[in-house]
């Protein structure tokens, strides 16, 4: 803090003295503002308070539980604000009121309070990276800075820290127990594919790279496994009118000022062009209808050309009425429909040309039997 500053010295002994004109402190910390006042003899002070914008801080609901007043025997008045927010940045003034005729006196100008948070700025060269613990105002009191690497102290006192190689470690600085957000290279780098699953040849697919990093990723590069040169740059990579040669494993590289990180490779499977379900259904229906219409025609054609489905045609050969009464009846095969099983039949008798062979036989005993004539007498 600076030396005491007499802000106001009014006539006849009216005055308010602040111990400093400005304070810069950290978000989340606490701050004490001090002042003392004087007034002429013969007056009695009845009310004292700190305010911003003519509002008593103790009456502001935003300050409930965070603001306290204190007065010591030396007439020093202290305002304490805890759990500071950036919205607490303002000019704070002290006022006192006397009982005689309600006279009031304000120390103006007051104390300017600036609340800032800690940030780490990253500066890179081709051979090193420098981290600087940064604030929007110069912290009051020349505080000590402490640097942490993966939660372990690596340096104290200096607001800057330098390292000489890319790393996946995380870093943060601290002042008076208040930590900055950590800075780190990309992690949890992954690839998502839309649409997911098997990709039909001729369609399109989009790959998107995501990664957690602070500072944020400033460069994305896309690669295909076993291919040296990059395929594309940018957080998303689209492949249109995809062909079978596009199948394979793809991955992205995410990079910020701290380090770089590759994702796990994502397989892209390309399938051949597929007929739609509707087209397939129509094709099957047409095939069945054609089959139903064609089958009867095919059966009729087979019958008309003597196919195997035609039954044997037979005709009866009736005996010649003039022939011997003991002549057998023969059935002749229709030569148009005969099959090889009947080719060996050579004894089919034709009534016009064949003669039944005569067989010489000895007379039967029965032929010599003659019944004697009956005697009519």
Automatic annotation (TrEMBL):
Keywords, in A-Z order: Membrane, Transmembrane, Transmembrane helix
Region (Disordered): 307-327, 346-377
Pfam families given in the database record: Ig_3
Residue span, Ig-like domain: 109-184, 186-265
Gene3D superfamilies: Immunoglobulins (2.60.40.10)
Transmembrane intervals: 277-301
Origin superkingdom: Eukaryota
Name listed for the protein in its UniProt record: Ig-like domain-containing protein
Name of the gene encoding the protein in the UniProt record: HAVCR1
């Amino acid at each position: 803090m600076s030396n005491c500053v007499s802000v106001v010295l009014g006539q006849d002994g009216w005055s308010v003295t602040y111990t400093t004109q400005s304070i810069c402190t950290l978000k989340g910390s606490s701050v004490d503002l001090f002042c003392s006042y004087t007034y002429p003899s013969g007056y009695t002070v009845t009310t004292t308070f700190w305010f911003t914008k003519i509002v008593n801080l103790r009456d502001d609901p935003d300050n409930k539980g965070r603001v306290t007043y204190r007065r010591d025997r030396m007439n020093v008045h202290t305002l304490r604000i805890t759990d500071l927010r950036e919205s607490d940045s303002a000019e704070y003034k002290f006022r006192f009121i006397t009982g005689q005729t309600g006279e009031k006196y304000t120390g103006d100008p007051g104390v300017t309070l600036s609340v800032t948070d800690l940030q780490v700025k990253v500066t890179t060269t081709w051979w090193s990276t420098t981290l600087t613990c940064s604030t929007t105002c110069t912290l009051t009191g020349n505080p000590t800075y402490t640097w942490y690497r993966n939660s372990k102290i690596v340096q104290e006192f200096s607001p800057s820290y330098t390292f000489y190689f890319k790393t996946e470690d995380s870093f943060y600085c601290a002042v008076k127990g208040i930590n900055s957000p950590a800075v780190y290279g990309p992690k949890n780098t992954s690839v998502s594919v839309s649409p997911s699953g098997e990709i039909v040849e001729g369609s399109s697919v989009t790959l998107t790279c995501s990664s957690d990093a602070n500072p944020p990723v400033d460069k994305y590069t896309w690669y295909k496994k076993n291919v040296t040169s990059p395929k594309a740059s940018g957080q998303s990579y689209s492949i249109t009118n995809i062909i079978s040669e596009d199948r394979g494993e793809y991955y992205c590289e995410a990079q910020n000022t701290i380090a770089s990180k590759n994702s796990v490779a994502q397989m892209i499977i390309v399938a051949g062009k597929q007929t739609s379900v509707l087209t397939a259904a129509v094709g099957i229906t047409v095939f069945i209808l054609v089959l139903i219409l064609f089958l009867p025609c095919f059966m009729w054609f087979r019958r008309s050309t003597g196919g195997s489905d035609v039954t044997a045609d037979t005709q009866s050969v009736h005996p010649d009425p003039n022939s011997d009464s003991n002549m057998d009846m023969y059935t002749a095969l229709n030569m148009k429909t005969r099959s090889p099983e009947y080719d060996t039949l050579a004894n089919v008798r034709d009534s016009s040309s064949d003669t039944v062979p005569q067989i010489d036989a000895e007379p039967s005993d029965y032929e010599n039997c003659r019944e004697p004539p009956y005697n009519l007498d």
